[in-house]
Design brief:
about 220 residues; mainly alpha; PCRA, domain 4; about 55% helix; elongated
Length: about 220
Amino acid sequence: MKIPNLLSVDQCDNLLEKFKKFPNQVYHTTDPTFRFKPSAIGHFLVCEMSLNECAIFFRTHSQSRLFEDYLLKENIPYVIIGGLSFYQRKEIKDILAWLRMTLASTDFIAFSRTINLPKRGLGDTTLQKLREAIEKYKTDILTCIQSILNNQIPCKLSAKQLQGLREYIDLILSLQKSALQKTKLSLLIEQIIHQSHYFDYLREDPDSYQDRRGNIEELPCDQN
């Protein structure tokens, strides 16, 4: 049965009645402009439809974000079948890690995730050296790196690694400056992608490039 492009509450009522009469019926649309109103899910639940009787099918991975955001907000349990949750996808975790480093330079997990995007020759051994230096001198990540670059904290690194750290620091400081200027989230993400050459990194795997880029473009960016 074909459903309209945007479900109103009245249309939800009508669909619910059809669900009750034909519980195994599949409702679908072939219209590429289709937008499902997330609050319709909650409306079904108010009408006492069991979660075990509900399923949402979507054509591309990126489309799951709209539904997951609503389900998470309303504390409605769900399971993704045949794929990953939107926020568990590598490219989404990468961008969120960049944002965390921009807003909180004490997040070593976010630092470890982003320092080699692109590759800067800083492996696990080097990251452990940096962690030890941070703990020893009781400082944050960026201050520690800047001190290493200024020869104020001893840390044996190659010229390539030092250059990589210098480029990383410059990028994070640029992002922090934008954040302090209350740059829109969408523009901040664009800045991350552009200055880190993240799409070039994704192109290293051409088979997954379009899907991963599509996921990033689905990030909610309507905040200031």
